[in-house]
């Protein structure tokens, strides 16, 4: 690696020369500096002397085996240190870029999160970091927590509910309301918003995998709202298909509704919402690719 400039009349400074000078300045002994640089003492001495000749001034005063920095050497030393630091920074950037294309990101996604909004983020990330490989798997909140702790996942997109505690680092991405979804000709279509009491005795499709199901059912009991579950499923596609087949309505997060034929209205009195977050394990170092995804998620223009 060479640094060239015109101010000194076409000076060519090699990185090994910079390294040898910095070692000699630290040790104040060419023999020890050569050992530190893993070269012979004559090779180090020659390289330093060559650089001094090119610079036109001595960097060191020799006193037998002992050397001292000259006044010129002291003045140029900070510049040589900066050159070495920039070289290290350049190498780190190059290594990180190379590693981006070698280590896939293992991303876990809570099974009830709608894929459309998340897919837009992942598509942009792939465009910005086209060499990064991504492995996505779906699971429940508890499964995602377990897999993060065990090191089987790098990141997880989930609803932290009451919080994940100090064992996880959480960055909120977006919030979404719960809505009521139903077929186009349902009687609820005439309403602009739906109160929970409007749904009493109404047939509905139960989303068994919903992480907020217990909360919604608890509110129903508190308000004496009786719901008749005509169909139950853990699969989001089945739930929406059965709603569209006029089996009943369903409660769903607004960004999880993927069927364009379904109608939806916001749930009010009470309004229910959830937060979707990116979780990881604090203190565990990110791979370059994972670090890039965390930065991208924090700067992405999420809905809502």
TrEMBL record:
Highest taxon of the lineage: Bacteria
Pfam families documented for this protein: HTH_1, LysR_substrate
Domain (HTH lysR-type): residue spans on this chain: 13-70
Coiled-coil annotated residue ranges, if any: none
Tagged with keyword Transcription: yes
GO molecular function: DNA binding; DNA-binding transcription factor activity
Keywords, sorted A to Z: DNA-binding, Transcription, Transcription regulation
GO CC list: cytosol
InterPro entries documented for this protein: HTH-type_LysR_regulators, LysR_HTH_N, LysR_subst-bd, WH-like_DNA-bd_sf, WH_DNA-bd_sf
Family stated for the protein in its record: Belongs to the LysR transcriptional regulatory family.
PANTHER family the record matches: HTH-TYPE TRANSCRIPTIONAL REGULATOR YBHD
Protein name: HTH lysR-type domain-containing protein
Originating organism: Mesorhizobium wenxiniae
